[in-house]
């Protein structure tokens, strides 16, 4: 961070468990579709066009920072672009979402996956990080991110979204050796990508395991956790001092396994009882979360009540980073976002 007295490093200090005057606040998916500024750009450009244009990606990243008193920015990108240079053909289809036209079906498809070079293959996001850091000028830190290997495998095998990825788990059970090879390749790619983001200026990184909650704890420990652990161990060794955050949606039953990894921050979704998690995993940890995003659709009173309850629930932790329990919903009114941030930034009563 810059030494500019106007700089705001409360997020980084909280990540490291340092004493802070209030919980820092940012929101997953804060750079995006709920903002009219974003929708104006989206009317002109496709989603992949925006992600792959560093100028546009930097602009979208900065839109919420200009609009709200947030304590961190997160780069505008998508976890799925990592799979393209590995050989999978990605398209975002209106009304359907992301689709891979050549998903993994046979074990030979795993063998055909390519290794990546982050600067060559994903240089657009790395350049967007560089530009964003330059334009932030130390105002707030910048977060980089990637999908976790299991979540990337879900999309690679399913070919798109799914309610619970039953077919992915079936493939995993049917082809254990090919599954291990797939996870090895994805782990190598994610590690290279995150180290590239850090080299380009990301000051913290978050790993999104969006679909890990579809697994039992036993299967998670056997079929996913070893590879996620490898990523965090490599980051801890090769990028010491860069905070590492883990988030999984609907993954409360997996938190004990995640807590065994070298992560700095455990990010909880809204289904997790914060006090129970702290009692089980320890008050010596840093936690992030976990307001239900639906409160922002309800009323001002629902937002105020929810923010206060979340802050009280995490009050016993070493440090708490205020966030939503999942990404912000696209129909969220911006006035409610402002209210959330104002309430979150207040000292705990």
Could you explain the architecture of this structure?
With 349 residues, the chain is an alpha/beta fold. The chain has one domain: Alpha-Beta Barrel (TIM Barrel), CATH 3.20.20. The protein has 17 helices and nine strands. The protein has helices at residues 10-15, 36-42, 47-51, 54-67, 107-111, 118-121, 123-136, 149-158, 166-174, 176-200, 217-223, 225-238, 255-259, 274-281, 295-298, 300-313, 334-344, and strands at 73-74, 90-93, 97-100, 142-147, 204-208, 244-247, 265-267, 286-291, 319-324. Residues 1-5 have low confidence and may be disordered.
Q: Could you give the distance between the termini?
A: 30 Å
How would you classify the helix and strand content by structural class? alpha/beta
Overall geometry: globular
The first-level CATH class is given as Alpha Beta
Question: Tell me about the biggest sheet?
Answer: 7 strands, parallel
* Portion of residues within helices: 40-55%
Largest sheet: spatial strand order: 1-4-5-6-7-8-9
Number of domains as seen in the coordinates: 1
Total DSSP helices: 17
CATH-assigned fold name? TIM Barrel
Summed over residues and divided by their number, the pLDDT gives a mean of 95
Total E-strand runs: 9
What string, H for helix and E for strand, traces the elements in order?
HHHHEEEHHHEHHHEHHEHEHEHHEH
Provide the low-confidence segments as ranges. Answer: 1-5
Radius of gyration using CA atoms only: 19 Å
Proportion of beta-strand residues:
5-15%
